[in-house]
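Appendix B, example 12.
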Amino acid sequence: MTDFKRTLITSALPYANGPVHIGHLAGVYVPADIYARYLRLKGEEVLFIGGSDEHGVPITLKARNEMITPQDVVDKYHALIKDSFARLGISFDVYSRTSAPIHYETASAFFMKLYREGKFVEKTSEQYYDEETHHFLADRYIVGTCPKCGFEKAYGDQCESCGTSLSPTELVNPRSVLSGNTPVLKETKHWYLPLDHYEPWLREWILEGHTEWKANVYGQCKSWIDSGLQPRAVTRDLDWGVPVPLEDAPGKVLYVWFDAPIGYISATRELTPEWEKWWKDRDTRMLHFIGKDNIVFHCIIFPAMLKAEGSYNLPDNVPANEFLNLEGDKISTSRNWAVWLHEYLERFPGKEDVLKYVLTANAPETKDNDFTWKDFQTRNNSELVAILGNFVNRALVLTEKYFMAEVPVAGELTVSDRQALEGVSALRGEIEKSLDNFRFREALKNAMDIARLGNKYLADEEPWKVVKTDQERVKTILNVSLQITANLTIALEPFLPFSMEKLRGFLNIRGFGWNELGRTNLLSAGHRLNPSALLFEKIEDHQIEREIKKLLDVKKANEATMAGLSPAKDPVNIDQFGAMDIRTGTVIAAEKVAKTQKLLKLTIDTGIDTRTVVSGIAEHYTPEEMTGKQVCILVNLEPRPLKGIESRGMILCAQDPSGKLVLVSPESLVKNGSEVK
């Protein structure tokens, strides 16, 4: 391995349209944090870069659905994610965001350098366009009937019902999400990065030059390269993102896949004026910590971008992990099948390290792995409490009891004493080897073996018995035990930082460097300890039952949804229900709203007045079918302008699993204005 002067660590930018969950933590942020802390303990120069990915279509869709701006969406989730990471103890040197001005500047400059040097190819293609809203439509802005299963609300990139990958032109009866109208195909120009030009170089750089990369990373790269690389668009038609800095590119932004990794560079620029040292000095080692879904972007596409630019370092390694499942099922944000970090921090205060420990001990390093709440409880109670906590507590409490909380003087060491102390030194080498090769599960086990060694040593020496006959021997036993305890504060610092800070407080010591791990005299004789307490506490059955019940409730809700039914909404009281004034009424006139596909303008006799209601039922009922129908109408709904028409009320419909709307009407004719109770 090349000797580097410093290390730049990047962690995949979480997408700012929702919170982070344990899958993100296990795959990316916990291992990256462990490695950064390890290097700092070694006294090495390191930067740990993080930030939020804040552009792209999912954010615009969320904003539209919630009737807020994209900036509102990313502001909300950036703050939530940043705070959650800080509370968990993820030790970023900077946590930035891609909506920051410095990122816009950095991404624009990167694009322009490649543009001026002729590194892009221009292509004109046909893309769906909404003539009413004057927008080219991204795939997720188009819905239609799936050609495979007939689902009527398939997206332009995928059918959510059968899972088939689609292109917009494959949809039957495509329509714009923005207006409901049928879109038209219109020519648009975009700029592409010709990945095929870099294929020979990538083959040499990765397949010949980085055979040391993890098998899952190397294998995926080889598969992509062997399949043949194609030019990839770096721009798209959208009104949210970094604007393409060209005069002939109005309404175009940098594609999020191009813009997001440049966020690592802009975050470094935000942190330090010496940013080029970290990105362009050949003595800097760069590591990307990512999940397996990002391998192609960080191993093929981003390196091709950096190669095209010409002045940047390339990654030395990309230690990507596989996926973490939850209770035997794939984590899914859309199905709410996840353990969300911010919720965990609220429900398990003070147990930040417990989560990091379990996720590391069960990390999906070589294959997908599974998180279960029972395993979480078992690892806490049987390992953190019964092994680490037990050893530390016994060493501290016995010292307080027998020697007034002062480190006793060690006498002549026995064979067992020397073996215990030498065991710590030997384990240091094993921990280092594992960490240097990104085997964090193995490294944690080796670090915990120091506590196991300490427990066995105390159990074999039995100072609580020996004290009755040989107090001098007990001094040596406890001195050795305390030296092992002090070594634990170093070995476990990368994995359990909050707990080791607590333990250093008990020992009344400063933090040691990694080079001091294995020393047998970290604590001097006569050194006074502070009062101690339990390092960890048991997690009770009722706490775990609470979490399992929460997941079962989610599963029931998902099953109801899959059956075409929405889960029950939050309870309302009788007063809240009584505030809704629902009456019977008769439609006396109906007509289509111009330039829309879904809307009908209805004139309704409510018994108390005659009013206009705009309703999205035009795809299910014709004006002729609606005229003369008796309906149920919410009459005290706040008036709302729709397509220039003031709508006063809402008629009630039921939606079946296929999406069809059916009017809610009285079984028999009743007087208009009758209240629905």
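The chain has 20 helices and 25 strands. The chain has four domains: 6-117+258-325, 121-191, 372-516, 574-663.
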